[in-house]
Amino acid sequence: MLSLLNIGLAFFVIAVSPGPANISNATIAMSLGRKISLIYGAGLSVGLVFWGLVAASGFGVILQSSVYLLMTLKVFGGLYLLWLAFLSAKAAVNPDSQSVQAEGNSTSYAGWFVKGIVLNISNPKTVVAWMAALSVGLGANDSTAFLMSGVLVCIGVGFATNALYSVIFSFNGVMAWYQHASRWINGAVSGLFAVAGAGLIRSAFSRESAS
Hints:
The protein is an all-alpha fold. It is built from 10 helices and no strands.
């Protein structure tokens, strides 16, 4: 039980830290409200489940050693983050016509769910996060059942963390503050997405050259 708790705490620390997924979820919660953010967060969580199953199956090790497969995934993920950076920059420059709110009016609930899945699936670094968290409480002699229990704990933590972001950042006071500072927030978010995307692409090619 203590080992599972350690796994859950380790994964919570990783999951709650600011990153592209959490930043985008917080922005959506502030601009579009709790319901859409919860749906988007559920998509993010499903993306986490995908990488969790990959890590638990041992494919995570294969992925880390497969230079071209990992490079392709990182380039795809980096380009997607750069696209998000472009959209955020566009909203910052012209918030009246190119805001997240305008996008929300034309995107279905299913569309937001899929966007969440795509964002987390496009980041293969999540495999490393999963493996790091699981390694905190797993021993060499632990059974497959215990491994799957650890995965289930992390899945629960992932859903709870994304829901926490949706709830906290969708309070009226936070949303009102966003409306006044949306230009600066979107500009900052654009910069963070751009740095993350460029870093992911750079790490893809640096890994290949190192190999």
